[in-house]
Amino acid sequence: MTQQDTPVGKILVADDNEPNRELLEAYLSDDGHEILMAVDGRETIDIATKEQPDLILLDVMMPKLSGYEVCQTLKANEATRDIPILMVTALKEPADIEKAIAAGTDDFLTKPVHRLELKTRVRSLLKVRHLTNERDRLLAYLADVDAASNQK
Questions:
Q1: What are the two backbone dihedrals, phi and then psi, of residue 17, each rounded to the nearest 5 degrees?
Q2: pLDDT tens readout for residues 119-147
Q3: φ, ψ of residue 110 in degrees (nearest 5)
Q4: Predicted confidence (pLDDT) per residue in 35-82, tens digit
Q5: Sequence ranges of the domains in the chain
Q6: Could you tell me if 74 and 52 are in contact, meaning their C-beta atoms sit under 8 angstroms apart?
Q7: CB 123, CB 5: distance < 8 Å
Q8: C-alpha to C-alpha distances, 66 to 4, 13, 52, 94, nearest whole angstrom
Q9: Cα–Cα distance measured from residue 15 to residue 21, given in angstroms and rounded to the nearest whole number
């Protein structure tokens, strides 16, 4: 896989464990992604709202707000609801996966993270994000053209 095949994006890594954040950053930064870091749930929401990343890698067990709460909050906010969220957690029970899906996560990855699996899921979610952005730009353009033609 060449770098050309992987959309480059701004990725927010949210994990209270520094070695986990550093590992995810090391896995992703060699593809040219801009990596942002958050250490708790509140900081994750603040950064996501301000920076509008293309993807969020979100740990479930974090201080201040859990990953589930962060995901629900971001998905309920019109400004952040379309940002894909990949939950990355050591939790492996089916109930944990169901809770993550109910919170609105777009994908789920269990720790320990395998580099190839992470990169594959990140690539897929970034492609979806970029296509969504392109669709939104096209729809806005068409709405402008329609409005201009109706004024004539």
A1: -95, 115
A2: 999 999 999 888 887 888 888 888 888 88
A3: -95, 150
A4: 999 999 999 999 999 999 999 999 999 999 999 999 999 999 999 999
A5: 8-150
A6: no
A7: yes
A8: 35, 14, 20, 18
A9: 6
If you ran DSSP here, which 8-state letter would residue 32 be given?
T
Fold of 8-150: Rossmann fold (3.40.50)
Q: For residue 77, count other CB atoms closer than 10 A to its CB.
A: 13
Write down the pLDDT at residue 3.
44
Res. 2: pLDDT tops 50:
no
Q: How far apart are CA 85 and CA 137, in angstroms?
A: 21
In this prediction the pTM is 0.86
Cα 62 to Cα 51: distance, rounded to the nearest angstrom: 20
Look-up of token digits 């994000």:
129
